[in-house]
Amino acid sequence: MATRPGSVASRVEASPLRHADLLLLALPFALSGLGLLMIYSSSKTRLAGQGLSKFYYVERQSLAIVIGVAAMLVVLAIDYRRIRDAWVLVYIAVLPLLMGVLVIGSRHKGAQAWFQVGPLQFQPSEITKIVAVVALAGYCHAHRNDLDTGRLAVGIALAGFLMALVFLQHDLGTTLVILVCSFSVLVVAGLRPVHIGVLLLIGVTLVGAAVVTGKVAAYRVDRIVGFLDQGTSNQPVSKQTQAEYSLTQSKVAIVDGGLSGEGLFKGRQTNLSYVPEQHTDFIFTVVGEELGFFGGATLIGLYGLLVWRIWRTARVSSDFFGTLLAVGVLGIFAFQVFENIGMTMGIMPITGIPLPFMSYGGSAIIASFIAVALVANVNMRRFS
Amino acid sequence: MSDTSRVRVSIVGIVVVVLFSTLLARLWFLQSGSENSLKVQAVAESTSVVQTESTRGEILDRNGKVLVKDRASWAVTVDRGLSKATATRVLGQLAEQLGKPIEELTAQYNSQRQSPLKPAVVALDVSQPARLAIMQDPQDYPGVHVMELTVREYPQGELASQLLGYVGQVPSALLGKLEKRGYQPGDDVGLAGAEAAFEKYLRGVPRQETIEVDPTGAQVGAPVKVRPGRPGDNVYLTIDSSVQKAAEDSLRQGIMSARHLQDVTYKNVGFRDLKAPAGAVVVLDADDGSVVADASFPTYPLNWWVGGISTAHYETVQKDNALLNLATQGMYAPGSTFKLVTSLAMTKYGIRGVSDYYTDTGQVPLEGTVFHNAQGESFGPVDLQQALTVSSDAYFYTVGNEFWRVWKGGETQRGLGLQTQARELGFGAATGFELDEASGLVTDPNWVKRFADANYKTQQQKAEHGTWYPYDDIFPAVGQGDLQVTPLQLANAYAAFANGSTLWHPHIEEKVVIGKKVIQSVTPTPIRHVSFDPTTRAVMLAGFQGAVSQAHPQGTAYTAFQGFPLGQVPVAGKTGTAQVVGKGDTSLFVAMFGGTIGQPKYVVAVVVEQAGFGAQTAAPIARRIIASMNGLPTPPVVAINQTPHD
User: What ipTM, to 2 d.p.?
Assistant: First the structure.
């Protein structure tokens, strides 16, 4: 790390908040605010039909946002370098949570992955993404001068163990997110092309073996086939698999939107509750249908801004950990946005990955705020 | 940061830019209009036309008393196409929730009488707590819906079941035909009786809504297009429900009572009671042919059909033949009640005069066969009036034989006078009644020949069975042989005799009403005018009066009308006892009363199968109905054990 000139010493003494990236900190509020609108629009008809309050999901999501902001403030207050040095503790702390849900977790839609905390559900896999990034960044930072193949293999093992625990909860989506963000961290940390080739081979072999031996649940194969097959699939609704049906309805909603959209709260597919899981994984279809291409492009643009600020933090970080942390968080957000929006438009297979800050889901919201807080933390302490 | 790291972070940045650009490109591709084919698909998938049946019209009696009406009922339905395990589980949970036996719900779900194309109605009149419980936990009740249906209600209870008929879901066999008239699978349609006959008035016009539906098929939001419906019209029948009730009660009482009487035709072989399995009553207004009562036994409660009849109930109804309206669909040999026709033909065609005496010795040899009176009684010299009062068979056997001789002698037209007279009074042809009816049968030489040609192979057989034999006239002269009449035809013929001039089309429709506005009022139409020789008619009427008169102990219905205030309510009548091959005798009685003595207003025809002599069962039933219609005391009917003759 380069030593700063004496002339900036006075800035070092000042509060790091002075250097905070306000755009980076503002984007989560903009995104989650839009998310609330979209959740309301997608769920109001269904909730009313069930005799529940139209604001049921909005209220719970708002509570999660409040908790998320509180968590963000707490994270900002702690110098990230203390977190960096405690990466082993962070890694170890998440393990009982992950093992705990495997034992006592309740079963839900193929993923067995949460603790009931009062009225809320706490899903450890969401926070695990961040733990993976923090731990890998911390590990690579600690060994930043002797990252040979053996040390990289240990890093891969650290990430792999977390991925295995999450995969055992049948949460393929989060497993993939951890895979991508860990990979991003390791690439920047010094993974060489030959390592990448070997890892790819191992990965392909494992996936192939799982499919062949039937260890992969049928609905997952459906999702992949539904994704690959969409051009030729003209079956009647009754013959479609859940995945084909979801994809068709999702695309129809987005196509319906056209350039300018059908108007907020006026989406026909949305109001008819045609898109399954619309307030969670398929929240982008509400944007697409009601706000059209302009709205959808704006949303993608907002994510672009967010990713750009994170990427910039990776460039300006005062230490290697900060860079790796930012790259890891960038991997999380960029992959989730691409996979989630991509699946609603039929260019990615359907997996249960939430759209950051937008999808209904408390744990994901809180984890996202924490992730941004960590990056902002690195950013605002870049001069200290 | 090392240079390698810097380069690698840049590469990550480039990858992200590529990914986000891909998203934007794909979004543009979807939303700029190139994938419009998906839009069409979306509309087709999400709208559907729902037809809601309008409130069905009411059926009322001639005094405006409601016989059938619609009422709302909260129903629980279960979708078709559930897996067997799911259906069993769901029905089990519903049974627990509704407090009904699971067998009942399962029977309803599997009933053949419900359309396989619509959700099955498994329970009606579901309480509000049960409805809420089901709606609050939809995941526990897959395929279960709660909906408000209208169902038929019968305020008069088990009254006029066969006459009123029932509604049911469009049977698959009729679906093709009815779909052209705007019916959908699962729609209700009148399937029998007045419900079927007056379907076009009662149904009204269904409401059609084009709605948007969610993926489960449930409606979302308001309909996008509406064609309003119109409730069905109310139909007033000529039935008088108090007379109908008296007829049904009397018929049932008479039948129950007869079942405790010995069947005397059987006594040579052993002892057994009368079976009296079934019967019918028709009460006609002779002045216009309107049916005042139309009772059929055995019967059943119409509300068995509400919500789809259960298999057990359907089997009961089928076993009893309770769906048949025997008053119009039952065919019987009329026995001596047919002497009305023989008497008229005899005088009209110059076979025997009204005052010519015939000496009844209890038996008569004709064309090589000896014909006996019932129970072998002999009445000595009788003229027409006496022959009708005592019901001398020998008198009419010889009339029948004389007709045959005339026919055989080449006077074909006069020789077939009996058959011509029968047809003129409406026998052997449908009356044009609104409900299902049988046409009956009056044979003649042509019919016999055609029947033989169609049913026998060899020329010898055809010739033998195609011949018009003496008994083809002798038996019908006393209402036996191949003659078949419906109780309605019998009543209608007597009605023409009673009014002295007109054979009316019997009918039950009085008027059709929307709200208070009468849109159609039925004017009685004659089948034909019938001319009666006044002298003959007066003599016959006196003969019929004699049959019930307390001044003539030999009158066939003397015992049945003992104690009846004939001075106050004059009654003329004719008993009939028809022998049926392999069964007990049919008990018949036709009475005329009301109006004036010379022109009675009402005709009551009673027919009870396997119930002994006409005077035993049918006459006491008719007596109670007449008493009821005249405000006289109506003790329960008791069938009569001791009768001198038919």
Answer: 0.91
Quote the tokens at residue B245.
């009730």
Cis amide bond preceding B298, omega within 30: yes
In chain A, % helix, strand, coil (3-state, to 5) comes to 70, 0, 25
Structure token pair of residue B227: 């064609």
Nearest CA in chain B to A270: B214
A348 touching B (Cβ < 8 Å): no
* Alpha carbons A33 and B284: distance in angstroms, whole number: 82
Residue in B19, B23, B215 nearest the CB of A274 = B215
Contact A347 B22 (CB under 8 A): yes
Query: Could you tell me if residue B253 is left (phi over 0), alpha (psi between -120 and 50 degrees) or otherwise beta?
Result: alpha
Q: Which tokens sit at A115?
A: 């603790």
* Interchain pair B30, A45: CB under 8 A: no
Instruction: Give contacts of A288 with chain B, Cβ < 8 Å.
Output: 27, 30-31
A 50-79: CB under 8 A from B: 50-51
**What digits encode the pLDDT tens for the residues B347-384?**
999 999 999 999 999 999 999 899 988 777 889 999 99
How far is B177 from B610, CA to CA, in rounded Å? 41
Q: Give dist(CA A297, CA B27) in Å, integer.
A: 8
The answer to whether the beta carbons of residues B312 and B319 sit under 8 Å apart is no
Mapped onto helix, strand or coil, the DSSP state of residue B458 is coil
Q: How many residues in total does chain A contain?
A: 384
Contact B591, B213 (CB under 8 A): no
SS3 A341: helix
Question: pLDDT tens-digit profile of B294-311?
Answer: 999 999 999 888 877 878
Distance from CA of B87 to the nearest CA of A (A): 19
The four Cα atoms B329, B330, B331, B337 give a dihedral, to 10 degrees, of: -110
Report strand pairing: B234-237 vs B59-60. Answer: parallel
